[in-house]
Design a protein that fits this description.
Largest sheet: none
CATH architecture of the largest domain: Orthogonal Bundle
Number of domains: 2
CATH class of the largest domain: Mainly Alpha
Helix content: 55-70%
Number of strands: 0
Order of helices and strands: HHHHHHHHH
Distance between the termini: 29 Å
Length: 167
């Protein structure tokens, strides 16, 4: 899937403009979080996406009138990004984030319990490049210290590693 086109599978409103914009904002939030970017920005993108979903019935009208900023959690920057996505189907900055995704992500996501966001974080922030390295890291119990992963996520990865041959 080309960067910035949204996943199209993240909840209600998938076929409408607000749903597509929200999907793209959530995709950007996931990448920003995985790369360890500003958590306030990540939260703003997620909250903005949820607000747009809640107000999807009047999204087009607000977009045309320039009143998206009247919605809670939608500032000038998010309104501009929403307009860009609605007009072009893309978010310019998302392509740059996608370009930063390490090639190891494809290998790490083969481990059950390791989704794309987690694999990006592991490769870019913890310098995990192989399944064997992930197994070594899991043995240290450091995965549970990743705030959005927690103990349950670390357990899922441990269980997934147990199913991977040669790990």
């Amino acid at each position: 899937m080309p960067a910035g086109e949204g996943r199209g599978a993240r909840g209600p409103g998938r076929g409408d403009a607000a749903g597509r914009v929200a999907d793209t904002l959530l995709e950007a939030a996931d990448l920003l979080e995985a790369f360890g970017e500003n958590p306030h920005r990540v939260r703003a993108y997620r909250q903005g996406a949820e607000t747009l979903r809640r107000h999807r019935t009047d999204f087009d009208r607000r977009l045309v009138r320039g009143t998206l900023t009247e919605l809670p959690g939608i500032g000038r920057e998010l309104a501009a990004k929403a307009a860009e996505i609605a007009a072009t189907g893309r978010l310019e900055g998302l392509a740059a984030l996608e370009a930063r995704v390490p090639p190891e992500v494809a290998v790490l996501t083969r481990v059950p319990g390791v989704d794309r966001k987690t694999a990006i974080y592991l490769a870019s922030r913890l310098h995990v490049h192989t399944v064997a390295h992930l197994k070594d890291l899991a043995a240290t119990h450091l995965l549970a210290s990743v705030s959005w992963l927690g103990l349950a996520g670390a357990r899922r990865i441990d269980e997934g590693l147990a199913t991977v041959s040669g790990a």
